[in-house]
Design goal:
Helix content is 29%, strand content 17%. It is of the alpha+beta class and 179 residues long. It has a single domain, classed as Nucleotidyltransferase, domain 5, CATH 3.30.420.10. The strands form 2 sheets. It has a 3-stranded antiparallel β-sheet, with helices on both faces. Strands 4-5 form a two-stranded parallel sheet. A hairpin with a 6-residue loop joins strand 2 and strand 3.
């Protein structure tokens, strides 16, 4: 589980087929009267699918609301959520609700967000739904993200091997400088 954003309305450079010497001109944006949005997302390792919600803020209230969505989606058994140490994740109301609803909040150590598999999944929405676009409304931007995630989830496969063959999976490839 993690947050993706901020999703603001600005032209995003990206690659495109253009005639030689005729680059795409991006509009100037000096203010953002429409504000920003944030995507809260969870990766189901069993199916490989992403569950998400786009919200105006990313406080503990929005996070708790998202946890309730996840609990409703998987009502049976214990639910384990791996996440970073963002303060809203540790709010007293969130912890209390999680304890009473069989949700185990698992926090990765500080500065190790790369251990959370969902982090690598955020590159694709940025590349396929946001780069090279100039969305004029958050609804239009949300539709582009939703279209990509529907396509992605239709082709999702279970996540089984995290960093296969990497030194982080075994001590055999680990070398020390101990004399």
């Amino acid at each position: 589980m993690d947050e993706f954003g901020p999703l603001n309305l600005q032209p995003r450079p990206g690659r495109a087929w253009r005639p030689t010497a005729r680059p795409v001109r991006l509009r100037a944006v000096y203010n953002r009267p429409a504000g920003v949005r944030h995507m809260l997302a969870a990766l189901d390792l069993g199916s490989g699918k992403l569950v998400y919600r786009i919200r105006e803020r990313k406080r503990w209230r929005e996070f708790l609301s998202f946890l309730k969505v996840l609990r409703a989606r998987w009502p049976d058994g214990k639910l384990y959520l791996v996440m970073d140490n963002f303060a809203p994740h540790k709010h007293a109301e969130v912890r209390s609700w999680a304890a009473g609803n069989a949700v185990d909040l698992v926090f990765v150590p500080t500065y190790t967000s790369w251990l959370n598999w969902i982090e690598s999944e955020f590159a694709a929405p940025r590349y396929f739904a946001l780069n090279g676009t100039d969305h004029r409304s958050h609804a239009e931007q949300g539709d582009a993200i939703a279209a990509y995630l529907r396509w992605r989830n239709a082709r999702a496969e279970p996540k089984r091997d995290f960093a296969p063959g990497s030194v982080i999976r075994s001590w055999t490839g680990y070398k020390t400088n101990v004399a």
